[in-house]
Amino acid sequence: xxxxxxxxxxxxxxxxxxxxxxxxxxxxxxxxxxxxxxxxxxxxxxxxxxxxxxxxxxxxxxxxxxxxxxxxxxxxxxxxxxxxxxxxxxxxxxxxxxxxxxxxxxxxxxxxxxxxxxxxxxxxxxxxxxxxxxxxxxxxxxxxxxxxxxxxxxxxxxxxxxxxxxxxxxxxxxxxxxxxxxxxxxxxxxxxxxxxxxxxxxxxxxxxxxxxxxxxxx
Length: 218
Description:
Elements: E1 10-14, E2 26-30, E3 38-41, E4 44-47, H1 49-56, H2 62-74, H3 80-92, H4 98-109, H5 118-128, E5 135-142, E6 145-153, E7 158-163, H6 171-186, E8 190-195, H7 196-201, H8 203-213
Parallel strand pairs: 1-2, 7-8
Antiparallel strand pairs: 3-4, 5-6, 6-7
């Protein structure tokens, strides 16, 4: 899973069934093992993706775990309902990390899933440089017109747009996007626009511009 790479191998077995001690990987013992939560990966019984997400909630920061969840959803490998089912089962058993995973689910059921990995790059910068979290897909309505902003700080009227070159190859979309930005600018919104190159290779500069737009020290 994106953002979850690790050289550490962790194995779960039933409580009191451990036969050997090992130093090259970590062994967990559990009374709550459910065969329905396993799948086969390269011939090895493995916790399924939904169960793995819930388990990672106890050891990972919510931001990278959320990005991994969104990436898995974009690839069609998981849906929120599956994670919710695993979460409900683990919550009854009082497992660690339940609160963090529940918060991730609450955030995603309240907003649409992004369609581009550029959003992950923006959220990664916000997290790494300790900036305030923006609102995603923020709705702006005025006099019967409606627009959605990729990222927004409504209290500051600051909007961040992640521009895809492929998206803007469509001429009709290009013109419509400019009209939309002009309309929002007249309502007082300040726009920061970043491309994939900015988000990948100029991360500190991007973070500095966001901080200055929010009148924050950097």
